[in-house]
């Protein structure tokens, strides 16, 4: 039996600043496989659009997202901009009949997310790519197969030094402004929330607390976005769950997700944000001497996004986060903020 052939997924990307180091290398790799064709790019200015097109061999450069969304050569619009701009861009693409892949978080508010999800139907996907590390997919499989028995306790920490570093401040200082829709709760926190939903199902009884502990990034950039958050929830089976995130944790040790059950434990770890750092999985069952490595932390930073887009290009989208998943994550953030 021969593999089903799919024509290349023709992608147009809106915004290149973040995408340059993440999305564009993945599209180049998938183009070599014949799965993707990057056909268009749009930025707000002609010089930046044409420069990006020239650097990456993209045939069509558009000024403004509206022109790209109307481009008949584009099948999927990749919205790689800050959250406050997502709704208008996604709705324009959807109105033009395109599929949409939107950066996370989906939107700055639950209301925006609801409108986007309603407009998208089955055509909207969110770049919560952490699901696609082999260490995470194996964690999910083992939990479902009963490796730990009855799940009792789940604890996740995502503590990063991101905005204590000059490099991050210089490249992403816009994250300091809450009006743009990004925060530790809504970026790293929602990637973590999506992983928990992916592994365990919908979370309930969400409550928590948020803080703005670092008012000046690098001593010069005023910051009013949430930089630290902690919250608790229940899994569908009643296990107690906790999450603690920060992007101003000096010497922050990265990501850690531990699952304790009646028959064992599983531990997923990454040296940094799970969107870009490979996940190591270890575990132990009753009777073992201690945890052993089950999946090594290997893979390039662009691997999970590449896997996500490959799934879109081949139509194997069962595990690709949708706008509904993005909305569910936004509702978790809203519940945390509402109980603070």
UniProtKB/TrEMBL annotation:
Signal peptide: none annotated. Residues 9-124 form the Gfo/Idh/MocA-like oxidoreductase N-terminal domain. It comes from the Bacteria. Keywords: Oxidoreductase. One of its GO terms (molecular function) is nucleotide binding. Residues 137-266 form the GFO/IDH/MocA-like oxidoreductase domain. InterPro entries: Gfo/Idh/MocA-like_OxRdtase_N, Gfo/Idh/MocA_oxidrdct_glycsds, GFO_IDH_MocA-like_dom, NAD(P)-bd_dom_sf. The keyword Kinase does not apply. PANTHER family: BCDNA.GH03377 (PTHR43818:SF11). This is Gfo/Idh/MocA family oxidoreductase. The lineage of its organism: Bacteria, Bacillati, Actinomycetota, Actinomycetes, Pseudonocardiales.
